[in-house]
Design brief:
- By secondary structure, the chain is mainly α.
- It has one domain.
- It contains seven helices and two strands; from the N terminus they run H-H-H-E-H-H-H-H-E.
- The protein has a two-stranded antiparallel ribbon.
- Helix 1 crosses helix 2, helix 2 crosses helix 4 and helix 5 packs antiparallel against helix 6.
- The longest helix is centred in the first third of the chain and has 30 residues.
- The radius of gyration is 18 Å and the shape is globular.
């Protein structure tokens, strides 16, 4: 039995998904995570007997950060999350395989660049909710558009983590069947 060579890191046979497809997946991920965070926060409140929203806030934030880290690291070491599968997007390391746990964890930590800069600036300037939302959406748009400066149109946190997103139409999913986006 002959062993197949792993795809090279310089020329992936699968194309990078369009920015539109990746952002649609990102939005879907946010909708699903809202439910996960809601249930996890509720369980945390019950277990810690939290009676007020500001009580145990740092502990809740740390718990959610760790929970999301576990979720994404586990999913990415298996090539995708549910929204990625739906949008036919697969994550891979330089060898064309699912990233290692260390690489997936690095990607998780680097992916916070989508939210931390505007949230830090908003906190520093004490921006009200509407302005913070506008700042965050503006930053997300700019960060996403910066992928056009990458030679393979990858997000920069993927490049820094040594991962890449590829469009894999052979992957089961529902969105975009029969259409290119």
């Amino acid at each position: 039995m002959t062993k197949q060579a792993a795809p090279s890191s310089t020329a992936s046979p699968l194309p990078t998904p369009s920015l539109r497809r990746r952002l649609a997946c990102w939005l879907y991920e946010g909708v699903l995570l809202f439910g996960v965070v809601f249930v996890a926060s509720l369980l945390f409140s019950v277990v810690t007997q939290t009676r007020h929203g500001l009580q145990n806030r740092p502990e809740l934030q740390a718990f959610l950060f760790l929970l999301l880290g576990l979720y994404f690291t586990w999913c990415w070491t298996h090539s995708h999350t549910l929204p990625m599968r739906t949008w036919h997007i697969r994550i891979q390391g330089p060898d064309g395989r699912a990233p290692s746990p260390g690489r997936a964890l690095r990607r998780y930590l680097l992916s916070w660049i989508w939210l931390l800069p505007p949230l830090a600036l908003g906190s520093l300037l004490a921006l009200p909710g509407g302005q913070l939302l506008a700042l965050t959406l503006g930053w997300v748009g700019c960060w996403a558009a910066l992928s056009y400066l990458h030679p393979k149109r990858q997000f920069w946190h993927d490049a820094w983590a040594g991962t890449e997103l590829v469009f894999d139409p052979s992957q089961p999913g529902k969105a975009g069947r029969g259409r290119k986006s």
